[in-house]
Amino acid sequence: MAVTKEEVMNALRSVMDPEIGLDVVSLGLVYDVDISESGEVKIKMTMTTPGCPLVGMMTEDAKNVLESVEGVKSVEVELVWDPPWTPDMIEPEVRARLGI
Q: Which domain holds residue 62?
């Protein structure tokens, strides 16, 4: 059975930014998900700042989480900086909870 983008995004909700205490999906850090028919998953994600000291941990967490999803054969996480992340990328309901 082929893995879906929804399954990938739901799995990524368990990857937390420990400094902010929110998951990478809610923060709007996941820019793109590409899934091949054979189960190869490629995601493009960013960090809240280019100098984020947790970049290695968070990208590794994303890879580990996705490798455990049924149907995923391989995972590639590409770190991108364009467009630059802003708080406007946080999911609207999360922004409202945060008072942003």
A: 5-84
